[in-house]
Input
Amino acid sequence: MQASRARLFKEFKEVQREKVADPDIQLVCDDSNIFKWTALIKGPSETPFDGGIFQLAFSVPEQYPLQPPQVRFLTKIFHPNVHFKTGEICLDILKNAWSPAWTLQSVCRAIIALMAHPEPDSPLNCDSGNLLRAGDIRGYQSMARMYTRLAAMPKKG
Amino acid sequence: MQSEDEQVVDSSKAETTKTCTQTPEVDDWANFRDDDIMQQQSAIQAVEADKIPFVGDKEPLSSLAAEYKSGNPIILEKIKVLTEQYAAVRRTRGDGNCFFRSFMFAYLEHILESQDRAEVDRITASVEYCRKTLLSLGYAEFTFEDFFALFLEQLESVLSGPEASISHEELVERSRDQSVSDYVVMFFRFITSGEIRNRSEFYEPFIQGLTNTSVEQFCKSSVEPMGEESDHVHITAISDALGVAIRIVYLDRSCDDKGSVTVNHHDFSPVARDPTNANINNNSNNSQPIKPFINLLYRPGHYDILYPNN
Output
């Protein structure tokens, strides 16, 4: 418990320092609980998520950093490796490939990379995965684009 | 038997990777999440933990023989041969960290008993070199410094200085305390990863032979995560990085053509290295291979600690 708190405090200070270096990620710690974080990440360019802002919720276990943080999308997203209802993310580093060398910040970077490079062969969202597996890139992109517009962009007017 | 226990853990690991794939046939899949799987996995691990602590008690080799009482005759024969050289065994939990855990305990116990201050000074310099290596590889210091600090703290505590060293019971207790034991295991994982990546051209062919992945991918998926089992690549790397010789004694069913039984061992002897720079001195004629003070027993899939006869 004490170890995880100390580590998170270091990450907090690092995040303040790195703010300018990584403008695509805005990582914020809950005011009253250092084990709860949220992040706003920019959808990567040249993907259907471009222009969208996606919110992630982090829940950090007491065993951190020996155990990974739990992360999920709060913003609806149409992506093969994100559960459409729960926002759960299928990413190896959040499961069995986790190591303390990762940080909350680098997890955000890995999630942005996953948005740009979906892995349709281990889908949490089968509809999305099947479009890609069937080679229907256009279908996938237009669905993903639609949900980006509906859920991840500020309402106009 | 150990191997069965490990299969339980292994199948739960396979389960975790499978969960990423949604099967349409399962109607209530939406309610069945990775968190549940991870909880189930940690429940299985908790059951394992009840069976054997991270580091067990010292047991006579006869306890090993008892395990194979109605088992393979070659193994029993080999245990007999083993007793000529070794007196006791100390088991470790089969959780994928057994090599690093065995190494941790055997090393700290050796320092506690030998009070070899020169060795402590030597390894401290090696650790400092490893710290610089990780920094030069681009690791953020705050991600690994806690693990380094905890290891150095253990090292200091087993050596009598102005304060008396900790007792042997205390060392056993700490090795069973997850908040110490897992941190030291993780420290070794950082050291091993740094060494492999720092000398990637040397390790690449071995890694290619094992997994057909890049050196970096291997370190990320098979060295740094807790619970990933160790192979000769890991052992070579940690031996070189820390400058500690390790003897691995093999207990398996192999025998020669005539059916006669010998127990093989392999010594991992660290390359001679000046801890102040990266150059490895390959033609150091003056360095005799040292007899390792760390003796580990390898049975396919698992490492325990061995104690030689005195």
